[in-house]
Every structure is written in C-alpha cells, then in structure tokens.
C-alpha cells in the first residue's frame, strides 16, 4: 500500500494484496451459499432512465458511449443526444438498482422468496478520498418476495452478515440497526411532518454533532427547540437488547407507525442479541440518508475504525421493484469490499502467507529433464498441489533463489538421493526423500493463508 | 436461453445458468492456480491514450465520462474535450493492454517470469451477433519475462489451456498453432514484403475461401499469381505432429526467419503431441489478424462448433510491454468465457443439477420453533451443508412444495419421529431419522453439479 494507483480512485492490488481480497470474496461467497443464496451477476451498464428512477440524483454516475459515435457527433455526422437522455447507457453505481430490474425482467423464471448474492464492481464519479474509490467491489445479499416478505428475513440477512463478517480477519464489528417506521412515526408523533428532512439532518449527527443538528432541524425542517430536542433524544438511544423500547416509550410519544417500528426492531434486536451476542445494537441515530428504505435499516462499523464509515449497510424496501400491480418487497445488506480491503491492507490487519499459489517448484538437473519434471508436477497437481517447472537447468542455487524470490516454499529435485526424488523446504533448509504420489505439504502450505496481521 | 437480454449484447444469466458459468470460472481458476498462476485484476477503465497505443483502432471502444461533466459541457459551463483526447477514460476491450500497463507500473514489485491469470469483464461496442457480446468475460493467462522469456513457456501456456479446457464439459476442442516468424519469413522468402497485408488476407481464408484470398493477395498486396499460390500452399499445411516441417521445406523457400519459426513451432507441436495428444495441431493458416504477435500464435476451435470462431486465442509478444530500455516479452492465451458459456447453454452442452446452493430446507412445525430450526441449520452449515430455514409454520405439504419449486433436494423435520429429527429426500419421497451432527447427503447433492447435457 506504499504504491499509489496510477489513476486516482481506481485502486489495483499487487498479487499478495489480491490474495487478501480473494480470501475476503471466497469467504463471503462460502457463507452466502451455506445460507442458500444463489449467485448472480448483472451487466455493468443500465440505462440512465433505470438508474435515476429512484431519484438517486445525488449519486455521481459515469455515462458510457461508443467512441465511434462520439466522433460522428463531433464531426457533425450524427445529432448529439442530451447528456441525460434516459436511453443513454451508464455504469451502475450500486447492485440494488440492477437487481431490482433483474427481478422484474425475470420474475417468471425465479422462485420467491428469492435469495441472491452478487459480488461485482460498481462505479461512482465522486471525489476519491480515504475509504472512497471511484471503482469498487460490493458484495450484496438480498431476499426478495412476491407481494409479501416475512419480517423474519430482516433478522435472517443480519445473522448471515454477522456470520460472514465474523469469518473475516477484521476484528470486532458492530451492526447498528434502526427502523424507519419507528423514526418516522416518532417524528410525526411530535408534529414534524417532513420526516425525510428530519432524517437528512439526523444523518449528519456523527459528522457535525447534536448542537448543529438541532440548529439544522430548526432552520431547515421548521422544528421548534423542543421538537429538535425530542428528535435528538430519540437519536441518542442505543441498546444491545430490547430495552430501547422502554426508553422510547419514556419519551411519551404516541403513534401507530412508531409502535409498528418498535415491534419490528424489538424482534430483530431480540433475536440478534440471543443468536449473535455482541454483534448488533439498536441505534436510533441510524438514518441511511436519502435511500428509500421503509423499515429496518442497517449500518456496520469496524470497531476502532469508526471514522472509516459503514462497511456494510442496507435495509428493507416495501417495494424493491414492481411490475404492474405486482410488488416485490426486499431486504438486504451490502458490504463495501474495496473499502474494507483497503483498510485491511493499509493497517496490516491481514496478511497473505505468499503471493503465488505455487507450493512446489520442480528444479531441472538437465534441460532434457523438462518432460520428466512436468510428469512429477502433473502428479502433484492431480493431488491438488500447485506446482511449476523450471525451464532451464541452471545451478541449483539459482533455481532455489528463484523459488525463494517468488515465495514458493518447496523445491523438488528429480533423481536426487537414493529414493529418486527429494524435496527441500527452502525456508528451513530441510531436504528429504519424497514420492510425488504420496508427499503432502502441511495444510498451511497447501494454499496461501490469510491471517490477522 | 429462450429469454432475450433486455439490452442487446449484454447477456445476463438466470441462477441455474450462472451455476454453469461459475463452474467454468471455478474450474479455470483451479487449473490456473495448480499451475502457479497468481490471480490479479485490473481496473475496468484505461485512458484512451493507453488503449489505442498499440494501434488497435479496429476495436470498438466505449468511452466513459462523468454525467455531471457532460451536463456542464452541454450547458456551456465547461469546454468540451475532443472525443479522442488521450486522457479520456474508456472501458478496456481486452485484458492484455491493461496487463501490460500493470506490469510496467508494478515491475519493481513483481518477480519475473511473472505468471498471472485474470478473469474479468471486457467491453466492445461492436454489433452484437451470435457468439459476440458487447460485455463479456475473458479468462487470460500470461507469462511475462524481464528482458527474456524461454520459448518453453510457449508450450507451457498451451498445455495449461489444454488441461483447463479439457476439464470443462465442452467436448472436443483443438488448439491450432502457427508461428509469425515462420509465416513472415516465408512471405519474405517468396518476395512479399508487406507481410502484415498478407496476414490480413490469409486471416480471411476460412470466411471467404482460397480463391477470394488469392484475388485479395494480388489486388491488395500486389502478389503475382504464383506468389499467391505459394502463400496459400503454406496456409494449407496442417499436421498433428512435426511433419509440417518437411511439408514447408518441400515448398522450396529459403529464409532465416522462417527457419527460426520452424524450429520454434516444431518444439511446441512436438511437445504438445507427446504430452497432450489430439489437443493441438500445427495449422499454418492461423494469422490472428491485426494483433501484434511476434512468434507463436494460437486459436482454439470447439469440434463441431467451428463456425463459433475461436474460443481461446493468443500468442507471443517480443515486447508485451516496455519501460525505458527494459522490455517485457510475454506469451499468453485468452478464453472467451461468455462466448463459450453462451454456446454451452444454447446447445444444452452442460446443465446444472439445481439453481440454488441449498441442500436442506428446515421446515417449521410451529412458528416459535424458528430458533431451534436455525440451530439445526447452523450445525449443518458448520459441516459444510447449505441450509435455509422456513419462516412460517405452514402445512408441511406447502413447505415441501416450496423446497421443490426452488430445487432444494432435502426437507428437514424437527422433533418428528422417535429420534427427534427426520430428513426427507423430496425427489424419492424417502424419509428417515437423521442427526444434524452426522447426517451427510450423497456427494453429488452437496453442491450443484454441472454435467454434460
């Protein structure tokens, strides 16, 4: 991570760094599949009409155009299209909008509730900064129903993510959970009807502090000093168990929607507290800004790295997608894989044991042994041991040095010693007779290991 | 494959189709890693200057621009940039150009010869047609040296690809191999100096036939009738072993570069013939059009699907990349994964046993059993068995029907029968007592299987 990417906001990893990222992706995939999520991918481009449908104008979008067409326009041989023509193509900025379109288009071929995971690159033209790239990988899980979706799935996705994140070498994390119904009902209950405006102000709490938010609420949403105080009192509630319910009730606000939200959040937090203790907290300050969630909302902080922002966020939509009078409610969470991996690498939180998959480097005694050496490597590979073969019979010292430089732990010598073959652990220097049909390295050498740094 | 993608040229797979694609990617990755290739990824965008550096103007490029900037230009608040401004960003159209840049940028951090695989999406704005998409996945392997690279690597990469493709359910394939030095030397030897022009014409042989190519050679390259005949005689040579050498010599042409090419190709074909019999052939008609190869060139056809075009192509570059007076020769091959998977799916060459990873669906007898059911599912998952849990205690018949509709093979019943638990194979209807700590499905049910259709 001493290197700077040659294009700001477009990080690229060295092989050993990629081993760490691949380990994260493999671990997530394994957890998601064990929980019955099917993997899909959607195309990288959507039409602008599709991308901006949910009013996500705040997301910086990258438009895409055929260079040949651009040249025709520049030469006056083709009429220019408007930059925001809804038919124009653009790169997706998240995986939720494309997934919603996929569900609508393929509804007749999917079995609902449909559980899917999706791990792909997304693009945003924002100013690059710590924790924010212009190209980054997200790993999403969503469960989407046809017409209805049990609130139990709100707990299900949180438990899956707690397990997935818990399997990564990232230390402690905390999923902070709130409920939009609770918050919006409460605001209405105290007489604030511009609930979106209140949420937008509350969303700034961590950045600007309660006093500034109180000012914003009064100036921008027209709240009285008491209303601002009450909204902030709600946002200050944070409990590991369901005791937040009593704390909310103590604020003395009556609202049906708020009650619905309290019941839903109590169910989620109660179950998380029992099944994944220490992983989740009811945090009534979580707003999730402009995103169009309608119930449970989630954010996740890495303990000790709170200023990094959320590494895994999401929520429930009453209508993730709709098709005619058919609606598809959904609930899901999205991990910012690149943000997480950048932090893991920059803070040496995780390290790869080597940069290459190779376990064994088969040395050559003579150039004409290459085919025999390939035979040995072939036997090792059939047994799942990654092996490569030298191409020229240089001095053994030089061949060992090459393996060492690439991080390959073992060098194999053909026809050396009494048994015909010998293998050398070049880290310890130990050399012993070996049979390609039976020799096996210790488990920790078989594939590159990623461990907490 | 009855469905049409909603954006022409941008295919998307249903979950069961994605299982097939994922199987292809997993199989390739495993083979590449067993042969010591390290996985890397490069960013999706390059500058136009970088992309068009090798003169690849024939590739249709997608340019990328921030929508906010486009709007500023349209409103006259920002000066327009030229469509072919070299600093403009565009999506990569292959993985070779980005890899060459990556090697140059990171040369100080890589150990050479550097073996890497790279499996990513690429984009080309070409007219979509059978076998050609605008967004598609490529899987590349390359070996790149610092200053020099043994010709043995030309065989190495071909053997790896023969093994990788041989592990896929795609039937027979044939790697057709030629050598640029052989061809160019031969053309020079018969007095044709515009060797690029000759290659361009020969490249059309399969599409337009020998008579048309003879006409092209005379009209466009200025060849005489005899020269055209000789060039076609060379292109007609095709042998499984090294007997092509004698056939070329019989044409009576003398040229040093040709001799070098003959030696290199004989080495490649001789070794392929011994180590991967039936997988490769010397085919002196292979030209690889405008690509800037300097030695061995490869194309691969799927036997019985020749009209699909090449599914795996590549070659050797004397200078894949350069940095000051340092050059990085490389040799590699690229699989057109999307092209291959499209064919596998459209011709039912391969089929997934199910669309979901889930092995066991844990049914509910009562709503309050959900936590106990999650415990059972948790034990199964810890043992590597993918499991999901019902959310409501509907009638068993309805729960079984749900599992059946999603393709889940087993339904688990809590507290049923004397032993406490029972599991039902819903395909056979067999139901038996089971212990979550010990029960294991047959290996073929553990993960979705992809088999020849």
UniProtKB/TrEMBL annotation, chains A, B:
Source superkingdom: Bacteria
Its EC number(s): 6.1.1.21
Entry's Gene Ontology molecular function annotations: histidine-tRNA ligase activity
Keywords on record: Aminoacyl-tRNA synthetase, ATP-binding, Cytoplasm, Ligase, Nucleotide-binding, Protein biosynthesis
Location in or out of the cell: Cytoplasm
NCBIfam families listed in its UniProt record: hisS (TIGR00442)
Summary of subunit composition and partner proteins: Homodimer.
Protein name: Histidine--tRNA ligase
Organism: Micrococcus lylae
Gene: hisS
């Amino acid at each position: 991570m001493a290197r700077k990417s040659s294009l700001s906001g477009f990080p690229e990893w060295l092989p050993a760094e990629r081993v760490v990222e691949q380990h994260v992706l493999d671990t997530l995939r394994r957890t998601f599949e064990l929980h019955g999520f099917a993997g899909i991918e959607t195309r990288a481009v959507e039409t602008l009409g599709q991308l901006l449908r949910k009013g996500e104008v705040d997301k910086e979008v990258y438009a895409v155009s055929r260079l040949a067409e651009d040249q025709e326009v520049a030469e006056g041989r083709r009429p220019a299209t408007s930059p925001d023509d809804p038919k124009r193509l653009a790169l997706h900025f998240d995986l939720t909008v494309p997934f919603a379109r996929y569900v609508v288009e393929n509804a007749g071929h999917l079995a609902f509730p449909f559980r899917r995971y999706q791990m792909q690159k997304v693009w945003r033209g924002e100013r690059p900064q710590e924790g924010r790239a212009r190209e980054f990988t997200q790993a999403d899980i969503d469960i989407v129903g046809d017409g209805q979706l049990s609130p139990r799935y709100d707990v299900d996705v949180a438990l899956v993510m707690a397990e997935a994140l818990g399997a990564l070498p990232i230390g402690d994390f905390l999923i902070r959970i709130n409920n939009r119904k609770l918050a919006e009902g409460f605001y209405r209950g105290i007489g604030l009807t511009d609930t979106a405006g209140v949420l937008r102000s509350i969303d700034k709490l961590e950045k600007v502090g309660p006093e500034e938010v109180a000012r914003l609420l009064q100036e921008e949403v027209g709240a009285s000093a008491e209303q601002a105080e009450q909204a902030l009192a709600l946002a200050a509630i944070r409990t590991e168990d369901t005791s937040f319910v009593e704390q909310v009730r103590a604020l003395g606000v009556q609202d049906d929607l708020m009650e619905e939200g309290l019941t839903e959040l109590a169910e989620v937090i109660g179950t998380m507290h029992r099944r994944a203790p220490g992983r989740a907290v009811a945090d009534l300050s979580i707003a999730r800004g402009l995103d169009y969630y309608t119930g449970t909302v989630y954010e996740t902080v890495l303990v000790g790295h709170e200023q990094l922002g959320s590494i895994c966020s999401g929520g429930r939509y009453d209508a993730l997608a709709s098709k005619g009078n058919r609606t598809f409610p959904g609930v899901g969470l999205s991990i910012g894989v690149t943000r997480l991996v950048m932090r893991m690498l920059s803070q040496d939180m995780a390290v790869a044991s080597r940069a290459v998959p190779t376990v064994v480097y088969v040395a050559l005694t003579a150039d004409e042994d290459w085919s025999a050496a390939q035979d040995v490597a072939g036997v090792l590979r059939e047994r799942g041991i990654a092996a490569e073969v030298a191409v020229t019979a240089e001095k053994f010292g030089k061949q060992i040095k090459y393996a060492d430089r690439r991080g390959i732990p073992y060098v194999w010598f053909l026809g050396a010693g009494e048994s015909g073959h010998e293998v050398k652990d070049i880290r310890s220097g130990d050399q012993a007779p070996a049979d390609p049909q039976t020799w096996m390295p210790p488990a920790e050498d078989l594939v590159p290991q990623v461990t907490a740094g």
